[in-house]
């Protein structure tokens, strides 16, 4: 598979800031110098974002699939498969499972994973990641939210979104998209994404975007499918879970829209990868068939 960054990073804004700081008059030179020092430190930290943790949120009771993280896929629990993939990502300093259930804790300890117990009250994976981050007792700059139900996630995709966020200090969030088959264009469960020329997200929708005036999916347009994986600036993650829901987020039932509606920037990388999420027991058979075909054991 290939990972390519959409657009290129720009350091223009940073330079403008520093030039602005330098223009402060001589009378306040001392203050300006202190300000500049602080700014540089912030930029250096924002620019490096070097300490990275991968968190796999895993809830036991899912409405569509009870005990989903523990279902066996070709003889191994799904959560173990996801964890093994995540461990292969060189950009992660640490990988941890965050769960609300003792059965998942036991299972994870069995194959050697670090686990953090989180509250049953967490409404979604993002909240669970945030709670786990607070309980880690170590500082991280970037958090990757790795969905437990994507057992074939590519380590290169994890590395790709981490690098994208590290290279874009003006973004607080990064995620990945893959080519969308035009016949999936009208499936509301396939979330579509559009990006600007610099590789920042413009919008996500369950509807087909962009929309062709013929009223049909254009076979020749490179539509983009959103993959569930995402990474956040660690300080932003805390704020993200506290920001109240926004109108477009509620209407589309897509939590990432809250980021864009609040004016934050999101970096998007384009990858060649088919999503093979496990939502229902039927999906397990599909994914096992695929793994046999690809000789993955
Ligand atoms: C819309 O889709 C058709 C059919 O694929 C294509 O020929 C056309 O260029 C697209 N764009 C517009 C503006 O019609
Ligand atoms: C998670 O769930 C809460 C409660 O339903 C919701 O307010 C929030 O927008 C969701 N997303 C995030 C990122 O917190």
TrEMBL record:
GO (cellular component) term, any one: cytosol
Any one GO biological process: carbohydrate derivative biosynthetic process
Keyword Nucleotidyltransferase: yes
Main location: membrane
Coiled-coil ranges per UniProt: none
Pfam families: CTP_transf_3 (PF02348)
Compartments, record wording: Membrane
Pathway recorded for this protein: Nucleotide-sugar biosynthesis; CMP-3-deoxy-D-manno-octulosonate biosynthesis; CMP-3-deoxy-D-manno-octulosonate from 3-deoxy-D-manno-octulosonate and CTP: step 1/1
Keyword Nucleotidyltransferase listed: yes
GO molecular function: 3-deoxy-manno-octulosonate cytidylyltransferase activity
Keywords from the named record: Membrane, Nucleotidyltransferase, Transferase, Transmembrane, Transmembrane helix
Listed InterPro entries: Cytidylyl_trans (IPR003329), KdsB (IPR004528), Nucleotide-diphossugar_trans (IPR029044)
EC number of this enzyme: 2.7.7.38
Sequence intervals crossing the membrane: 17-39
PANTHER family from the UniProt entry: 3-DEOXY-MANNO-OCTULOSONATE CYTIDYLYLTRANSFERASE, 3-DEOXY-MANNO-OCTULOSONATE CYTIDYLYLTRANSFERASE, MITOCHONDRIAL
Recorded family membership: Belongs to the KdsB family.
Name listed for the protein in its UniProt record: 3-deoxy-manno-octulosonate cytidylyltransferase
Organismal lineage: Eukaryota, Viridiplantae, Streptophyta, Embryophyta, Tracheophyta
């Amino acid at each position: 598979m290939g990972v390519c960054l959409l657009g290129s990073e720009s350091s223009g804004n940073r330079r403008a800031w520093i030039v602005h700081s330098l223009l402060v008059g001589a009378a306040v030179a001392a203050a300006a110098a202190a300000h500049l020092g602080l700014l540089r430190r912030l930029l250096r930290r924002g620019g490096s974002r070097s300490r990275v943790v991968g968190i796999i949120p895993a809830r036991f009771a899912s409405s569509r699939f009870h005990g989903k993280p523990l279902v066996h896929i070709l003889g191994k629990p799904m959560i173990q498969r996801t964890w093994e993939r995540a461990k292969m990502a060189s950009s992660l300093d640490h990988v941890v499972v965050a769960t609300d259930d003792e059965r998942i804790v036991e299972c994870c300890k069995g194959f050697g994973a670090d686990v953090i117990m989180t509250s049953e009250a967490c409404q979604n994976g993002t909240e669970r990641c945030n709670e786990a981050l607070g309980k880690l007792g170590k500082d991280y700059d970037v958090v990757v939210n790795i969905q437990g139900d994507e057992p074939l996630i590519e380590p290169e995709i994890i590395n790709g979104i981490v690098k994208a966020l590290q290279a874009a200090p003006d973004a607080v969030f990064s995620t990945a998209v893959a080519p969308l088959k035009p016949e999936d264009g009208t499936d509301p469960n396939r979330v579509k994404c559009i990006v600007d020329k610099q590789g920042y997200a413009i919008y996500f929708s369950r509807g087909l975007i962009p929309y062709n005036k013929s009223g049909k999916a254009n076979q020749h347009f490179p539509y983009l499918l959103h993959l569930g994986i995402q990474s956040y600036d660690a300080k932003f993650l805390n704020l993200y879970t506290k920001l109240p829901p926004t109108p477009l987020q509620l209407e589309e039932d897509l939590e990432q829209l809250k980021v864009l509606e609040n004016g934050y920037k999101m970096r998007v990388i384009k990858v060649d990868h088919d999503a093979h999420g496990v939502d229902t027991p039927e999906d397990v058979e599909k994914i096992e068939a695929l793994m046999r075909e690809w000789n993955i054991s």
